[in-house]
Amino acid sequence: MPSKGIILAVVLGVIGLALIPKYINANKKQDTTNNENTAVTVKQTKEESEIVMKEIHLAGGCFWGLEEYMDRLPGVFDVTSGYANGTTENPKYEDVLYKNTGHA
User: Fold this and answer.
1) Which of 1, 7, 87, 94 has its CA 20 to 30 A from that of 22?
2) Where are the domains of the chain?
3) Which of 8, 24, 58, 62 is catalytic?
4) d(Cα 68, Cα 79) in Å, to the nearest integer?
5) 62-84 b/e with 16+ CB inside 10 Å = b?
6) In Å, how far are 39, 65, 75, 84 from 54, measured between CA atoms?
7) CA separation (Å) from 100 to 59, 85, 93?
8) Torsions phi, psi for 60 (to 5 deg)
9) pLDDT for the residue 54
């Protein structure tokens, strides 16, 4: 029969793992709270003039890292990752890596 110390450690570990998503979501809620003033400002100025959306293309070594960073910036409405140039439409990572598609 396992000792009480081992059982306690397992129970505390499971509780700790269960709380990780709540901690992550709490941080995301704090991030969006900081951006609420920006959203209000946009709504207030929209009546005076229309909001102009612009598109930019960025190059980065890590899709997901760049996408995560850009998603956090005020005023960024959408972020999409992908490969530039090349001959294959909608290539997958393996296509670019092994099939010489010409994508950057």
Assistant:
1) 7
2) 1-52, 53-104
3) 62
4) 9
5) eeeeeeeebeeeeeeeeeeeebe
6) 17, 22, 11, 18
7) 19, 12, 11
8) -150, 155
9) 85
